[in-house]
Design a protein that fits this description.
Blueprint lengths: L5 H16 L2 E9 L5 E9 L6 H18 L6 E6 L10 H6 L4 E10 L2 E12 L2 E5 L7 E4 L3 E6 L3 H17 L15
Parallel strand pairs: 2-3
Antiparallel strand pairs: 1-2, 4-5, 4-8, 5-6, 6-7
Helix pairs in contact: 1-2
Amino acid sequence: MRGKTPEDHRLLELLDPVAEAAGYEIVRLRMMGGQQRRTLQIMAEDAHGEMMVEDCAILSRAFSQVLEAADPISGEYVLEVSSPGVDRPLTRLRDFETYEGYEAKIELDRLAEGRKRFRGVLAGIEDDNVAIDFEGEEDTALLPFAWIVDAKLSLTEDLMKRGAELRAARLEAEGLPADPPLENEEEA
């Protein structure tokens, strides 16, 4: 799920070691667009699940050097390196465990219970299966991770609260105020 096409997978093989050497991990890579001007979109994060603007710049420079030397992409393209965001894609089995308790949308490559798309609250993992609780269902469903072609956290109040708490903790660790005073506000 980190890549969809054979080209995506070849680029992951090339760029995964670059990201790892710089202290990051590629969450998802997509080559998008037609044959003319395409975009190579790479979402990454550090070991703490974070990706600041400075991190994006560092990783973008490192990727650019390797991509220029190897020249694996024909034609013109734009490189975009970003954070996975709050409503991030879930691309690794461990992501489903990390975000246990949060709502997600999941799409399968085949029908299960007569459908391919599901929405529910993540309930962790069991072996190579994603556990998910569906509204109105008593039992937790297990979806084989190998069947999942797309998965993403749903943007909910709980997820936004988690993001705000993580940001506040990071700022506190850096010795910065969590909420800087507004322009017309005086500091106490």
